[in-house]
Amino acid sequence: MEDELKLLQKQIMTCQRCLLAGYPIQGPPIFSGNADARLMVIGQAPGRVEAGQTLKPFSGSAGKRLFRWFGQVGWEEDDFRARFYMSSVTKCFPGPNKSGRGDRAPSRKEQRLCSDWLEAELMLVDPEVVVPVGKMAIERFFGRNRKLVDIIGARFQIDGRIVVPLPHPSGASAWIQKPEHQALIQRALGHLAEVRESLDL
Ligand code: SF4
């Protein structure tokens, strides 16, 4: 699977589907990890830090909060990055939003254009555990009609994998600031700690 994944990653790196469809995305596609990863994190899309500076998933301010959460689980960032796969629903920076203060949310069409890359990553890496981060990634597993409060804080078994969703860790998210939602996040991190222990991850 390692060679097939490397080939897939090369194909993703030359992908221009969104540009050809007229979207103002800014490459390169951002993802990391190897075929032997036992856990996959799936985010929404890289931000300007990831795409413009570090070229690493979840390395901006939202990523710092995500790794603080993972630190509570017992995962240290460098080791986590070395052992696990990190990708997103759309892999290129979508550019700024209209106000210029944040990032544009990828459209449904961009999500569809990028979806078979994500499905191929899931198939080739075949992780035991998936952590969808944020609404867009959560919709891949639960559809569009479920509320975050019904999903965050629970552990699921989907297509033979353990799935533990987390909300988007953006500092701009009002959702994660609410005390009742912070309790759900702590419950989700508790599930991840149990999974880490039981699967020796
Ligand atoms: S976001 Fe996905 S589909 Fe769109 S250009 Fe980047 S890799 Fe291709």
Structural key phrases:
single chain; 201 residues; alpha/beta; Uracil-DNA Glycosylase, subunit E; five-stranded mixed sheet; 9 helices; 47% helix; globular; binds iron/sulfur cluster
Outline the structure in words.
By secondary structure, the chain is α/β, with parallel strands linked by helices. The protein has a single domain, classed as Uracil-DNA Glycosylase, subunit E (3-Layer(aba) Sandwich). Helix content is 47%, strand content 9%. Strands 2-1-3-5-4 form a five-stranded mixed sheet. The longest helix has 21 residues, at 179-199. The two termini are 20 Å apart. The mean pLDDT is 96. The structure holds iron/sulfur cluster.
Can you lay out the helices and strands and say which pair or pack?
Elements: H1 2-13, H2 17-20, E1 39-43, H3 48-54, H4 61-73, H5 77-83, E2 85-88, H6 108-125, E3 129-132, H7 135-142, H8 148-151, E4 156-158, E5 161-163, H9 179-199
Parallel strand pairs: 1-2, 1-3, 3-5
Antiparallel strand pairs: 4-5
Bound molecules: iron/sulfur cluster.
Brief overview, please?
By secondary structure, this protein is α/β, with parallel strands linked by helices.
> Domains counted in the coordinates: how many?
1
Helix content: 40-55%
Total beta strand runs: 5
The major pleated sheet works out as: 5 strands, mixed
Mean pLDDT: 96
User: In the CATH hierarchy, what is the architecture at level 2?
Assistant: 3-Layer(aba) Sandwich
Instruction: State the separation between the terminal residues, measured CA to CA.
Output: 20 Å
Biggest sheet, strands in spatial order? 2-1-3-5-4
CATH topology, anyone? Uracil-DNA Glycosylase, subunit E
Q: What series of H and E elements makes up the topology? A: HHEHHHEHEHHEEH
Count of helices?
A: 9
Assembly type of the chains comes to single chain
Low-confidence stretches: none
**How much of the sequence is in beta strands?**
5-15%
Could you tell me the radius of gyration in angstroms? 16 Å
Structural class: alpha/beta
CATH superfamily: Uracil-DNA glycosylase-like domain
**CATH class, please?**
Alpha Beta
Globally, the shape reads globular
**What are the bound molecules?**
iron/sulfur cluster
